[in-house]
C-alpha cells in the first residue's frame, strides 16, 4: 500500500507546510502506491481546506495516459486534527474508489478508500510521533 519512504515524504511535506494543509497525489499501479507527488494547495482557506492544483491533476492524468503511473488517490494534512476524514472531506469526496492518505497533527497517517458508501479505513497508524 504506502511504503515507509513515501510516508516519511508525506509527513515532511505536512510538517513544512503547517499551519496550512498540504496536499498531493498518490501515484502507482494496481493497489501499489509508488510515488507521492506534492502539489500546491490552491484553496482560498488553506488553513482548514485543501484543493489540489488543477494543473498538477491534468499533468498526472496526461502522464498516466502516456504509460506513466496511474493516479490512485490523494493525500493531505490535518494540522490541527486527526488522521481521519473530516466532515469537510466527507462532503467533498467523489466516492470514486480513490485512496486518501491523511496526516494528522501528531504525524500519524491514515489510509482510506473513498467508496460509494463513504470512507473505508484501510490502515490507521498508531499515534507515536
Based on the model shown, name its key terms:
single chain; 129 residues; alpha+beta
Strand and helix map with partners:
Elements (H helix, E strand, L loop, with lengths): L3 H14 L5 E7 L2 E8 L14 H12 L4 E8 L9 H6 L6 E5 L5 E7 L2 E7 L5
Parallel strand pairs: 3-4
Antiparallel strand pairs: 1-2, 1-3, 4-5, 5-6
**What is the helix/strand order?**
HEEHEHEEE
- Shape designation: globular
Name the CATH class: Alpha Beta
Main sheet record: 6 strands, mixed
Q: CATH superfamily, please?
A: Cytidine Deaminase, domain 2
The figure for the number of domains is 1
Q: Which band does the percent of strand residues land in?
A: 25-35%
How many helices? The count is 3
Uncertain residue segments:
none
Your description of this structure?
It contains 3 helices and 6 strands. It has 129 residues and is an alpha+beta fold. The protein has one domain (4-124): 3-Layer(aba) Sandwich (Cytidine Deaminase, domain 2). Helix 3 links the parallel strand 3 and strand 4. The protein is globular. It starts with a helix and ends in a 5-residue tail after the last strand. Residues 1-128 form the MPN domain.
